[in-house]
Specification:
The structure holds two protein chains of two kinds. Helix content of chain A is about 30%, strand content about 20%. By secondary structure, chain A is of the alpha/beta class. Chain B contains nine helices and seven strands; from the N terminus they run E-H-H-H-E-H-E-H-E-H-E-E-E-H-H-H. In chain B, helix 4 crosses helix 5. The longest helix of chain B is centred in the middle third of the chain and has 10 residues. Chain B is globular and about 60 Å long. The chains are: A alpha/beta, B alpha/beta. At the A-B interface, strand 1, strand 2, helix 2, helix 3 and helix 5 of A face helix 5, helix 8 and helix 9 of B.
Chain lengths: ~475, ~190
């Protein structure tokens, strides 16, 4: 029987079958950040454990660091500076590579990892961060772990795991105008619920995925964890190879040739059988935005806030009522009537060059509504510089956006910065949970184009007005 | 890690669905690079108002909330951020077991690594426990069963599944790292052949 892409990567990393369905799996790369990586590195040092293969371990500063221009180690988060200095010291002591503040390679881990060719097709990679699944966009089998497992992976180069089931999500049809990978994945989660992918490694496939840029595939896989999946994957193809060639840590010369040959084999066989398959008809997807406090609380930008009274499941109904209360919204309100206070473009979901280009195109010759605070945070220092070299920064600042240094910033309240309690934010991020962007802050997730269009209108809008 | 064998105690029901790790412990309380003092901030945004005053109406601030070792939560518990602080905060708060019909993968692995027993039950049994706030049940890890209170001869028994190795580690209070380190020869052999 044929094997899936997931089977192929998994099988190649099996060190031993441990019985009872458990596998000892080889881990090729570990990527840390200062918030949870600091804890793992410190735990290793205190227990006098060495990193087994330091060149397999990378670390960046993204969660807690300030994103204000001219930043240093000081950060708005109380106690935050200690995370930064501890990480720096511990990374040096452990002999691992750190992308520190001021390093042109610094940025959000899931933006940096593919951009530097650290995440490569067919590798296994873990990070103590739930959005590690992003890296499936280049065909890396990557998933989020805790600090203790990060120690295990660093000390031994392995983890003990039970193989998840497999799922293929077939994206068919044509994407309509103004629809992005973000809209597709929000649509998927709204249709099949936040637990729709539980227990499964998902391969995104089909003609729509084939045509998506590598950056858009990273966005798609990023949200796999919001679908409760173990991870997301896209088979590497010509676009992936073109994206990775020449990246800092990608193989070169004869090694590239060997790698390329191997990567071509990384696709699900025609007769591979998946435990589950889902179909999404992409022609039916419209620009999508969340109204509530779970990524499954999503509707089209032209839609209305739903009525919990029409939800048959009592548990879900209660969750909807609670969400409406937190979000201060009434059922039946057109999304387009929802006035926003702030707009945020950034995060491991949507802060890459394509995202910034899409938003800048919407902002062209327009102004952010006078009551809206708008912030753009490029995903990495490289993205920032590339954007500046094409003048995108000027498009953002001319429209009234702040233009920041790279980091996770206000995607979450880790760096101590927030739009504030009760503030309503249209955000290109991944989570609209209560308090995610700070206590009492209300988050509406959407694509960068929708965020830009909404920032200008002052109300929720898709680019093009819908 | 503290071993877990069997435990009898009242359950505390938090019926909310999608309780994410930022509800379990808000990110702003992750203020040091150590796992210490997390229990007092468990469910902080539920337990305290914006002025930092304890909400007396919140069950987690009542004696019952502090003394129940078994948490029964609504569907999709532990989603969101991978922070290991979440299961550690629950442990420090006093929970040893968390039960739901869906528990997020990363939370579940983290819980097992720190000694909090995560149990996933089918919807009907989970639904039954959701209606039993405050009643005492027995969680027996060795036999992988939950026994409900009954009339004289014992009550309903809900079996649950848990990976054998995870169960072994929890029963022994054993850190998995020792196991992995013992596999060093196999790991080296793998590295040499690939």
């Amino acid at each position: 029987m044929g094997r899936t892409l997931f089977d192929k990567i998994w099988d190649a990393h099996v060190i031993a079958d441990l019985g009872d369905g458990d596998t000892l799996l080889y881990i090729d790369r570990v990527f840390l950040h200062e918030r949870t990586g600091s804890i793992a590195l410190q735990g290793m040092a205190e227990n006098r454990r060495a990193v087994r293969t330091p060149r397999h371990v990378f670390c960046t500063m993204d969660h807690i660091v300030d994103t204000f221009p001219g930043r240093g180690d000081d950060t708005l988060m109380p106690g935050g500076k200690a995370f930064i200095t501890t990480t720096r010291k511990a990374a040096l002591a452990a002999g691992i590579r750190l992308f520190d503040l001021g390093d042109p390679r610094q940025g959000i881990m899931h933006v940096v990892a593919p951009e530097l060719g650290i995440a490569l097709p067919g590798l296994t990679m873990v990070c103590p961060d739930s959005h590690s699944c992003t890296l499936g966009g280049v065909g890396t089998l990557a998933w989020g772990i805790g600090s203790t497992e990060a120690e295990h992976a660093m000390a031994t180069g392995t983890l003990r795991l039970r193989k998840p089931a497999s799922m293929r999500v077939n994206l068919r049809g044509e994407m309509g105008a103004g629809v992005t990978a973000k809209d597709l994945v929000l649509h998927l989660i709204a249709e099949h619920s936040t637990t729709g992918g539980a227990g499964h490694a998902i391969e995104f496939a089909g003609p729509v995925v084939d045509r998506l840029s590598v950056e858009a595939r990273l966005t798609l896989c990023n949200m796999a964890v919001e679908f409760s999946a173990f991870t997301g994957l896209v088979a590497p193809d010509r676009a992936t190879l073109d994206y990775l060639r020449g990246r800092t840590f990608a193989p070169t010369g004869a090694l590239w040739e060997v790698a390329e040959h191997h990567w071509h084999s990384l696709a699900s066989d025609a007769d591979a059988v998946f435990d589950r398959e889902l179909e999404i008809e992409c022609s039916a997807v419209r620009p999508t935005v969340t109204w509530g406090t779970s990524p499954q609380h999503a509707v089209t930008t032209a839609g209305r806030v739903p009525d919990p009274g029409l939800e048959p499941d009592p548990g879900r109904q209660e969750a909807m009522r609670r969400a409406l209360e937190y979000m201060a919204l009434q059922p039946g309100t057109p999304m387009a009537d929802i006035r926003i206070d702030a707009a945020f473009i950034g995060s491991c979901t949507n802060s890459r060059l394509d995202d910034l280009r899409a938003a800048a195109a919407v902002l062209d010759k327009r102004q952010v509504a006078p009551w809206v605070k708008a912030v753009c945070v490029p995903g990495s220092t490289q993205v920032k510089r590339a954007a500046e070299s094409e003048g995108l920064d000027r498009a953002f600042t001319a429209a009234g956006f702040e233009w920041r240094e790279s980091g996770c910033s206000m995607c979450l309240y880790a760096g101590g910065e927030t739009f504030g309690p009760g503030q309503r934010v249209i955000s290109s991020t991944n989570r609209n949970f209560e308090g995610r962007q700070g206590p009492g802050t209300r988050t509406h997730i959407a694509s960068p184009a929708t965020v830009a269009a909404s920032a200008c209108a002052g109300y929720i809008r898709a680019a093009g007005g819908a | 890690m503290e071993a877990f064998t069997t435990l009898t105690g009242p359950i505390l029901v938090l019926p909310e669905q999608n309780i994410d790790t930022d509800q379990i412990i808000p990110g702003r309380y992750l203020t040091t690079t150590r796992f210490e003092g997390l229990g007092e901030f468990a469910f902080a945004d539920w337990r305290f108002d914006s002025a930092g005053e304890a909400r007396s109406e919140c069950v987690l601030n009542q004696p019952r909330g502090r003394l129940s070792p078994i948490l029964v939560a609504g569907r999709n518990f532990g989603c969101g951020s991978s922070r290991e602080h979440a299961p550690r905060a629950l442990l420090e708060f006093g929970f040893r077991v968390v039960i739901s019909s869906e528990i997020a993968d990363i939370f579940r692995s983290n819980a097992l690594n720190v000694g909090l027993l995560p149990i996933v039950l089918p919807e009907p049994q989970h639904g039954q426990l959701l209606e039993m706030d405050g009643e005492a049940v027995t969680v027996d890890l060795e036999r992988s069963i939950i026994t409900l209170p009954g009339n004289g001869n014992g009550g309903d028994v809900f079996p649950f599944t848990i990976d054998r190795f995870a169960r072994h580690c929890l029963l022994q209070g054993m850190d998995r790292l020792d196991f992995l380190l013992a596999e060093a020869p196999a790991i080296t052999a793998y590295e040499e052949r690939t």
